[in-house]
TrEMBL record:
Any one biological process term the GO annotation gives: phosphorelay signal transduction system
Protein name stated in the entry: Response regulatory domain-containing protein
CDD domains noted in UniProt: REC_hyHK_CKI1_RcsC-like (cd17546)
UniProt keyword terms in alphabetical order: Phosphoprotein, Two-component regulatory system
Originating organism: Marinoscillum furvescens DSM 4134
Top-level division of the source organism's lineage: Bacteria
Phylogenetic placement of the source organism: Bacteria, Pseudomonadati, Bacteroidota, Cytophagia, Cytophagales
Domain Response regulatory: start-end pairs: 4-122
4-aspartylphosphate modified-residue sites: 53
Transmembrane segments: none
């Protein structure tokens, strides 16, 4: 059974490229454009990993990660979260960890390192 990834990214270009790249790895991809939509999805479905843009409208990635970690459902409440950010310098790894984010990938996205990071959590980690 393929692993399910939720991509939260407000840029359609990055969202579409990410979906394409990860679909080629046989992952099942769902995509949303803001943190509120992430929470709506998580209330209905279980995911194996979340790629979370930090700068999104309505609810940003940091706020969204904290909300995910507060979910009572063990499966989604503990899902690996990988931040995608163009402003990695604005945050330390401690800031990400405090919000419940497991890892991050800087923008512009390097799709080789995206696949490597995702596989590290979903293929090697499980």
């Amino acid at each position: 059974m393929s692993k399910k990834i939720l991509v939260a990214e407000d840029s359609s270009v990055i969202q579409n490229l990410t979906k394409k790249i990860l679909s080629l790895q046989n992952y099942e991809i769902s995509a949303v454009k803001n943190g509120k939509q992430v929470m709506d999805k998580l209330n209905k479905e279980v995911f194996d990993l979340i790629l979370l843009d930090i700068h999104m409208p309505i609810m940003d990635g940091m706020e969204c990660a904290r909300a995910i970690r507060q979910m009572p459902d063990d499966k989604n409440g503990k899902v690996p979260i990988i931040a995608i950010t163009g402003n990695a310098n604005n945050y330390s790894m401690d800031d990400f960890k405090d919000a419940g984010i497991d890892d991050y990938i800087p923008k512009p996205l390097n799709y080789d390192s995206l696949v490597e990071t995702v596989n590290g959590y979903l293929v090697d980690g499980n």
